[in-house]
Every structure is written in C-alpha cells, then in structure tokens.
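User: For my dataset I need records formatted as: sequence, then structure tokens, nothing else. Please produce one.
Assistant:
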Amino acid sequence: MAETAGYERFFPYDDPYPNQREAMDRIANALERGQDVLMEGAPGTGKTLSALVPALAHAREHDRTVVITTNVHQQMRQFVEDARAIRAQEPIRAVVFKGKSSMCHLDVGYEECRSLKETTRSLVDLERDRRELAERSEALLDDVRAGNDEAAEARAAVMDELETLEAELEELEASNVCEHYRANLTRETDAFHDWLFEDVRTPEEIYAYADERGLCGYELLKEGMEGIDLAVCNYHHLLDPTIREHFFRWLGRDPAEVITVFDEAHNVESAAREHATRTCSARTLAGSLDELDGADDSRASRAKNVIEAFRTGLETAVDGALGFGEREQVGDDWHDLAIANDDRRDDLTLAFLDAYEGSGIDTEIDLALQVGERLDEAYEEAYRRGETATRTECATLQAAEFVADWMGHGTDLGRHPMTAVRRDAGTGEVYGRAELYTCIPREVTEGLFDEVAASVLMSATLRPFDVVADVLGLSDPVTMAYGLAYPEDRRRTFAVEGPALFSSERDDPETQATVAETLADAVRMTPGNTLVFCPSYAEAARYHDHVGGYLDEAGTPTEDLRQRFVADDDAVLFTSMWGTLGEGVSFDGDDARTVVVVGVPYPSLSERLEAVQAAYDRIYDERREAGWRYAVEIPTVRKTRQALGRVIRSPDDFGVRVLLDKRYTRAARDMGKYGVRDSFPPEERDELIDVAPEKLKFAMLNFYGDLDAYDGAPPSP
C-alpha cells in the first residue's frame, strides 16, 4: 500500500479488500477531526481492519489507546487474530480483557474479591513493616550493647511498635486472604509482563500461565494495561458507567484519550437497555426484612416499614396482573406482567402507597439506605476478618436503592415500570419481581460517545444511519456503506411471492403446504447445505417436520449442531431468526450455499416492545411512526439482512438468498407499513428478483447450473 495516510505500517497484508483502502482513508480523516464514524460493510469486506488500522495509527500519533469491543464470542476470537497479524507487521502492546468472573482462580464474586484484595494487601503491608522493624531492632541492639542509652530507648519504642503490629498480624492472619493475589504482591512479576506482550494473549492463556505459577492473572493484567495501544473487551466494559470508569483508570487514560470501536454495532441499542434496566425480586425484599429484624439499629423499624409496604405492593400488583389460571402456568423463566397505566401511576406504586402506613415515605427510604450502608460495611468487615466464609450481600441496601429509584424515577420519560413472575424450580413457589425497564438507550450511550475522543461503530447491517445516530445519541457522524464487492453473477436474491405469513395465517393448511413445498424445492436445488430461518422456534419445528433435516431447538447449545450440519452434505438446518445462528457465525463454501428466510421476523408483541415504541413516538416525530419504524421495522429488517449474510463470505463464494414472503416483493408496496421491501438499502433492494413459489426451483436450477455447481447431473425440477 503506497501513498496512504500514514497508517500503512499497521496494515498486515499485501492487498486490501475492495473499498478497504477508501474506508481506512475516510476513517483516518474522521478521527483527525474528532468525528464519530458509522460504517456498514458486507461480510468479508474487512471491516475490523478498516477501523482498527487507522485508529491504531491515530492513537500512536496522539498518545491514545484504542478499545475495540463486541458482544459476539466469535468476533472476540477474530479480533485476537487481527491484532496478532497487526503485531507481526508493527509492534503493538495489546491485551484481551474479560471480566473477573472469567479469570478468577477462587471463583468468588466481585465484593468478595474486593474484600480479599484489601485484606491481603493489608497483611502484606504489615508483614513488610514487621520485617523492617525487626531489622531496625537488630541494628539498634549493637548500639545498646555498646552502652548507648539513646539506642536503648529507641529500641524499646521499636519493640513496643513491633508488639502492637504482631497483634494486628495475628488478627489479620485469621482473616480471609487470596494467596494468588498475595503472590502478586510478594514475588517478582516482571516475567509475566514480558511474556504478556510477546504476543496477543487470550484470557484463557493468561489464566493458565498465572494458575501454573500461583499468581492472579486478572490483577496482573490490570497492572499491565497502562498506556497500551489496544484493548479488546466486551460491551459491558464500556456500556456500564461504573465499570467503564474503572476500565479507563486501568488503562491510565482519561476518556478523551480513548478511541472506541464497536463491532456488531446494531446490537448496541439492546445491550445499552440491558445495562440500564434495574430489577428487584420479592426474594431480595424478604431478605431485607430478615436483615432488619436482626439489626441493632434504631432506624431499622422505620426502614422495615417502607420495605415491607413495597413488598406488599409488589405482591398485590402481581396478584392483580395474573389472569385466571395464569399462576398455574408460570414456569422457571420470568414471565412479564403489565402494571403500567395511561392516566395514573402504575399498579405497584398505587398498591405500595395504599399499603404504606408511616410518617413519610421519602424519609423512611432514606433511613433504609442508611441502615443498608451500615449493614453492608459490617458484612465487609466480617468477611475481611475471616468471620464468614463468603462476603454477604446486603439485601437491605439493594432493596432500598431500588425503591428509591422506583419512586424517584419511575415516571421519567423512557423508564417503564413492570413486574414479572417465575416459579422456583426447587420449591414450586411463584414469586415476583419489580423492574424499571429502560426504553431509551441513548441515556446510556450518549455520555460515552460525548466523553471519548471518537468512536467507530461498524456492522454489516447498520443502516439507516440517521436512526442509529438518533437512538444512540451520536452528533453528526461520518457515514459510509460498502456492499458486497464480489461479482454479482455469483449470487442471486429471490423474493418469493408466497403467502404473507402473518401470525394469524400461519396455521392455514394451504399456506403451510405452499411454504413446505417451496422449501423442499430450495433444498433439492441447492448443491450444498441449506439454512432456513423461521420467525420462531415453533415455526422452525413445523417446517422441519415437513422437510426433515437438522433442527435447532430453543435453549439448546448450537455449536455441536452447527458442526454436525456443516460436516454433512446437501443437508438442511431449520432455526429461529431470533436464535444464535443468525449472526456472528460463519458458514463457508458448501456449509451454506442457500439461505432461506421464512416470513418477516417481527419480534413478538410484548409489554417491552410497546413501551419502546411509545417512548420513541414521544421523543421523535410521531407523525413518522417513529415508534414502529425504530423499534420494530428497522430491527426486523436488520435481522433479516444478518441472516442473508450467512452466505457469500469471500470473493470465490457463491450462493442463493431466498426471502419467502410476499411482503418482500414489489407487490408489498400496497401493504402500507407491513411491506418491507423499501426498508432494504437501495443496492440490496435492486438485487431482489420477484419469483412465484412454483418458479423458484427453476430459477435456482438455472443459477447453479450456469455456475456448473452441481456434482454430476443437475437435480430434476
């Protein structure tokens, strides 16, 4: 690569993908101006390196750190490979970071770990002080023997101090400590950091290295992160404000010295909601009441009064929301219940206020917070002293913080009050939880994007860019989109003029027969494997029963299934569009020659989805049906485009993509908002070829036949 913008030394290959050099130039220029970037690139177009290479060059020049993040495990592995390729070209210091739970040798929680570290450090410090005092005592002893009265007095003071310290040590030695962290503090660890930066190490490699030597790899990794060139991490390290603050401190960077790169950025919206949503179960409230019963604190009775009233309100709201016979049907998973009202506060708040009998809710919530903080400190001290084997979580503090948030912010725009129920698998008891669902993700993301130097968000399905900018709170980002640059004659995308598979039509026998026959034709005409994505697992099972093949079922691991499927020849796999095989999973070559999307995979109507629609309608332009467009239509089309991206993964690849529902065809333009063809990007829309169900087999036969893709004689249509 010649005459580039200064980033060429970081690019690890001889030739870029088509359009990749242009993308790198534009990203480099945007970073120099401090602008955010939204980049859409089809699978196999080098998105990661297009963002990473200019970002690393910019960071090197301006003394910054690049943080690249994803929520897809396979992409994390790809980041490691890309970082290693870059490192082979240009020396960089990179770390791959996972949370403490993935790297802890003791398998303890965050609070326990924090207590162990503090106690261990105190113990090591005291042991060091004891050694220094003992050495001082020995040095003074020679002077005492020589008749130095001042030395005698000094040594007596040292011995008194040593005696006091020994008592402290005796107490601490009975406390809980972490021997792995103790080894970090007492042994030479330079060899670890030398080893760490000899390559791009995975968390698994770091864990194994440290475990073999009795060290804590997680803490050593944190100590080695300051001023590095590149950090690879999960979304929550950036989307959770508290974790982000710690993470940037470990990097030794102010936010303005960090460039963030988000992969699979179409998922940031939902991930941000998850990080901002808060819950509190009846079990936590009951635990709080038990704590307060035993608390030696004059404030406990008033704190208990408000917590008990909230628990009563939750039980009342759950009972009122459960329909006839619904309690008996509750299973192990949380089942949402609607409690919100259009003209007044939600049912839980009303029941809480009705149950409360006291001298002031706000005052008693504040007292509950105070008692919770004191109890939490006591649990911390007990664990540190070794009086408890585990660090007790304070239910009162959790409950009081939640009730305070519920009453203080439950009516904020974008916060939606809900309840849910589940059945305890052991006891069979049905119990509830309260939840403040966050509908507006920009409440989480806008602050992040404002404080860092710049951000690059990339995905194969990021458009429309204006919606991404609105929803995430990006101001005037640079936008770029690169479609498949591979030969168009090696792919076909058919929109089948079959039935519109609205949920009300899916049980129709004639509809099922048409869909099943079309799917059988697609499988028969494919020289290789076929992937079929359905609107739900139930629909996948339905058509698997008609056609046969492999079936992905809800709640089951998919990797073994995927491996068995790709090892087969001319096989078909049925799965849900909302499962894990629709994105971040590669099917190369014959692993998936044809992909079929059955129906338009709208998400199931739910309390949450309706709340998001309502919030978007209020925040954005209601006349544009922003709620429907932002919350339903665009995520659905993105999901469809992700599924279509499972084929055509390289320049030599070829395949067929099938959209089996007339809502994808030109005829759907008469169906109002339910016609989705116009929601596809223009160049993808132009590739859609309308075809009748009975004609699909001939169209596929002609395409694959022209490529001489069949092994032997073509199948009979």
